[in-house]
Amino acid sequence: MSTPPAKTLAGRRAQAARNDEVILEAARAVFLDDPKAPIAAVAERAGVGISALYRRYAGKEDLLRQLCHDGLRRYIAEAEAALAEPDDWTAFNRFLGRVVDADVHSLTVHLAGTFTPTEEMGRDAMRANELAAALVDRAHASGRLRPDAVAQDLGLLLEACAAVRVPDPERTGQLRRRQLAVLLAGLSTVPDADPLPGPPPAAGEFDWRWRHRA
Amino acid sequence: MSTPPAKTLAGRRAQAARNDEVILEAARAVFLDDPKAPIAAVAERAGVGISALYRRYAGKEDLLRQLCHDGLRRYIAEAEAALAEPDDWTAFNRFLGRVVDADVHSLTVHLAGTFTPTEEMGRDAMRANELAAALVDRAHASGRLRPDAVAQDLGLLLEACAAVRVPDPERTGQLRRRQLAVLLAGLSTVPDADPLPGPPPAAGEFDWRWRHRA
DNA sequence: GCAGACCGGAACGATCCGTTCCACTGTTAG
DNA sequence: CTAACAGTGGAACGGATCGTTCCGGTCTGC
Asked: InterPro entries recorded for this chain (chains A, B) (predicted)?
């Protein structure tokens, strides 16, 4: 037993293990393109049958939840990585660039509400918020972030970038980077700027995604 | 004949005429909230039966098209009104504020693709682009708009604002205004700004909405 | 007072999609 | 070598949704 031929792609077991990844990858691509896509589309994209999906996930909701949780974890990982960066403003900058490039936000936002979140997700979401707030604090400390920007503005910013969409995925990435650059410039300190209008976004105002969805 | 009682709200005719508006208003509200809402939802919101809808529109697609065309006309009207403003930068500013407040973009973007556009809409879309380009030109002339911003950036900007969404519509409006303020600050001229990355959005890159939608 | 505009809403038919089920295949344990 | 079986493809099912049609009823305008 145990890897009879040492080759990495032998046997049914290995094939199955590889399918694990293929399916997740396909699901990510498909649901990123259309959050309401049928499950069959995922199977087709992955080049497997529907059974291969149902063997791994209890149902569509289960798959969606896992996918979304992965996105959340990625977000946290990027935040932690950015916090290791010594320069405050660079950390802030780098973090946003990474998150936008990884398209984490689309997953999180467009999929939230299509499943009932686990408690662990709730905890992770809290941690994500804390990390983001820490990055914003440091950005404020650097003096490069305009004083009336708040942590929740990150949500707005990421949503804005995720909204950019053209048929070609690569081009989409470029345009999102452009959008991000504009937004970052808008959030930067300038001498004679008018203050941002209206009450700033509050803490709970974006968590509604993690709860209902009538 | 002709208005036997001079009152504004008498008779079946008047009721019918009023329904015209009520239905359009309901349709706007419903499809703004969910572009894939069933037609029955519009009828319910309007407080009328389904027949009242089908008496006025050949089908769902017809209603959607009309709704979207109205949005386009509103966009054009706002652009023309803004062009009458003497100060270049103020015109640019005012125009965007109005369009964001009127939520024109949501209609246009989320509904496009759900119907086959008429030729007149194609012409109107062209005119809209010309007017927007004129506003951008004037904004450039004022020296307040950063030189590497192009007309197509308006599309990106409006999309970003429309992406902001919370349950309460009024609050949504406030947050969009905030978003707009950040974006405008980002598009404003500042002395030592880094140039915007990547190739700028090109002319045809957003017209794909007006064509297919597999 | 009657023809018909106008309307409400039930009913229909088509479509779509999540899930189940079963036959099949190559693998692995003994 | 072979009997079990994990793993799979994909057809089929049942439920839900939704656009559209249709019919019976009501009130107006002449």
From this structure: Homeodomain-like_sf, HTH-type_TetR-like_transc_reg, HTH_TetR, Tet_transcr_reg_TetR-rel_C_sf, TetR_SbtR-like_C
| Cβ neighbours of B71 (radius 10 Å) | 23
d(CA A165, CA B209): 11
Nearest CA-CA distance, residue A139 and chain B, Å: 16
Map out the domains of chain A with their CATH numbers: 1-56 (no CATH), 66-210 (1.10.357.10)
Residue B190 burial (CB count, 10 A):
14
Rounded-to-integer distance, Cα A185 and Cα A195, Å? 15
pTM over 0.85: yes
Taking only the tens place, the pLDDT of each residue in B149-189 is 999 999 999 999 999 999 899 999 999 999 999 999 999 99
CA distance B193 to B195: 6
| Strand D footprint nucleotides (protein C-beta < 7 Å) | 6-11, 17-23, 27-30
Residue percentage of chain B with pLDDT more than 70: 92
Distance (Å, rounded) from C-alpha A53 to C-alpha A39?
Answer: 9
Q: How distant is C1' of C13 from CA of B31, in Å?
A: 25
